[in-house]
Amino acid sequence: MSPAAAIPLLVVVVGFVAGCLTAVVRDGPPRYLPKWAWALVICAVVPWGGVAYLAFGRARRPGIPLETLAPVQPHDPGGPPATAPAAPPAARRRPPAGPVTIEVSGLTKHFGAVLAVDGLSFAVQPGKVTGFLGPNGAGKTTTMRVILGLDSPTGGTALIAGRRYRDIIRPLHEVGSLLDATAVHRGRTAWFHLLALARSNGIGPPRVHEVLRMTGLEAVAGRRVGEFSLGMKQRLGIAAALIADPAVLLLDEPVNGLDLEGVRWIRQLLTHLAAEGRTVLVSSHLMSEMAMIADHLIIIGRGRLLADTPAAAFVSRARRDVLVKSPRAAELAALVTARGATAGPDDSGGLAITGMDAPGIGELAAAHGIAVHELVPRHASLEDAYLDLTSGSADYHFEPAEGVAVR
Amino acid sequence: MTSWLARARDALAFEWTKLQSVRSNRWTLAAAVIVTLGVTVAIAESLASTPANRPAPFDTLTASFLGYAEYTVLPVTVLGVLVFTSEYASGLIRTTFTAVPRRGAVLAAKAVVTGAAALVVGEVLAVTCFLLTQAIVAGRHGGLSLSHPGVPGAIAAVGLALAACAAVGVAAGAIVRHTAGAIAAAITVVYLLALLCMFLPGPWNTRLGRFTMPFAAYQVASLHQRAGLLPPAISVVVLVAWPAIALLAAAAVLRRRDA
């Protein structure tokens, strides 16, 4: 790729030099060239350095290969999906008929000195909504951009049904995506925005009507997007993602800035789409959003994989305890500790017991005649579990000043 | 082969739909046409009022296109720039590249669609400007007819030059990405290089200047060849070479850059 980039610049430079040389040979050198003329020549020549920088300067740093994409090959440890056997790329002209997986393996992406994604590997399965979670700056958007072929990975691969996105012909038929709902031309109407996208993949106007109806934008189709609210733009983005009825959906923060009704609408839509057998990957930095939507969770922090787990399993793994308030708390603590549970003081003045459930504690107390004033089973919220997991990997987090002094 | 054709058609339909669906594009073109016609009439009137015994500063063919050279070329070049930079500014470019992952195809489609629109506008306007000017100066200097030797070629080349400028704008937009910088780059190629060359001493002003777009356009739009400039046929090649080189550079940059 990089030698090809040199060709046009070489043509310009060689052509310019050759033109000057032939002129000098034919007409003799100029008798004199005053200082201001030299200044002008320098002014005319210097901008080419800028062009050369644009072509060659970016991302060319020592030790980072420019193009490290491996040839297309299956990576899923469970074997390639049945619908996309490891055929030569040229044979894959038609979108696969069945379910499609996204496979990311060993993905690494540097932006200069910043390591945005660091050896990330996961697979997204069809038929369920997969939540892609991580704190701000964890590398979610970068990963999605690499999957969509917008950014080139520094290392590793991101494949959709065994192919790179860039190798898919008419890709909207296979992958619908929403990266940034505000990325629309303000002066274009919703209708023309969608029509242009549809035509780019050989789709006609009837389907545009269809997605406008699906997203409830029919009434405003003729209005310019600049007048849209954020919620309407999100709907427009979803409509654009669905324009070719794709088997895979990639949505980056689709509920960001939506009101409750909008969140519910997206949740129902995504659940419905996943139930149809589609592969749905939704990113967010808020656990609470994902808790309502996702069946499966992929959690990353600082570009590394932290968890790849069913959402239910993640919930059950979350810390849980029982809050007990009793006038004879010390006795009760001794009793439960003797049965293998742990008891500690709680901030509210009660006793926090882990390792025993509430009925067990209640019966134990009754058997020993200990009065219990409060007996509250507590689940650490998903939010807490998520924070536990990611607190070590957030790019920015608050630390109390004393913490530094104590250490 | 068919799939290649289908993809080219898709990309062209995509870009054409986007170009014609933004109202400001149409207004820009309409304003450019109106201003150009007005300036052309003014120049023709001033030419018609010069005494017949004094030599006219320009031949009447060149005079037809003086207004066009500034008031059409500048807005159309800027329009070409905006084709890319407006998408970079809004982020729409990522949607474009996900719809058509081949960046070379996106660039080519944008250049072809913008260039074709510019070509149509340019040719129509070139004929109109020519006929207007000749009608106005006919009384004093004797106007030219459309069939006068050299005139059809000149009109064709003037329209082509507009398409070339639009394509330079598209390439500059793709390379620089920011509107202001890209306009500066495109204007440098379309106007300023020639201006720089005119400040050079001695024979060097035309010796280098003849390779710039304005000099080449001047040569193809003149009845009489200026000594020291390239012959009209080569000048047309120069007019096409600038956008070609710029687009090749843009393709190389687009392919290796993250969107």
Features:
heterodimer, A: 407 residues, alpha/beta, 3 domains, six-stranded mixed β-sheet, disordered C terminus, B: 259 residues, mainly alpha, 80% helix
Tell me the structural class of chain A.
alpha/beta
Provide the domain count of chain A: 3
Helix content of chain A: 25-40%
**Distance between termini of chain A?**
51 Å
Query: What is the percentage of strand-forming residues of chain B?
Result: under 5%
Number of helices of chain B: 12
Radius of gyration of chain A equals 30 Å
Task: Note the main sheet of chain B.
Answer: none
CATH fourth-tier homologous superfamily of the largest domain in chain A = P-loop containing nucleotide triphosphate hydrolases
Q: What is the averaged pLDDT score of chain A?
A: 79
Please give the CATH architecture of the largest domain in chain A: 3-Layer(aba) Sandwich
Shape of chain A: elongated
Total E-strand runs of chain B: 0
| Beta fraction of chain A | 15-25%
Spatial strand sequence of the major β-sheet of chain A: 5-6-7-3-8-9
Class by SSE composition of chain B = mainly alpha
CATH domain class name of the largest domain in chain A: Alpha Beta
Write the layout of secondary structure elements.
The complex is a heterodimer of chains A (407) and B (259).
Chain A: H1 2-27, H2 35-45, H3 47-57, E1 102-111, E2 114-124, E3 129-133, H4 140-147, E4 155-160, E5 175-178, H5 190-200, H6 205-214, H7 230-241, E6 248-252, H8 260-275, E7 279-284, H9 287-293, E8 296-301, E9 304-310, H10 311-317, E10 320-325, H11 329-338, E11 342-345, E12 351-354, H12 358-367, E13 374-379, H13 382-390, H14 401-406
Parallel strand pairs in A: 3-7, 3-8, 5-6, 6-7
Antiparallel strand pairs in A: 1-2, 1-4, 8-9, 10-12, 10-13, 11-12
Chain B: H1 2-20, H2 23-48, H3 60-64, H4 66-71, H5 73-90, H6 92-99, H7 103-141, H8 151-176, H9 179-198, H10 204-209, H11 213-220, H12 232-256
Helix pairs in contact in B: 1-7, 2-7, 5-6, 5-7, 5-8, 5-9, 7-8, 7-12, 8-9, 8-12, 11-12
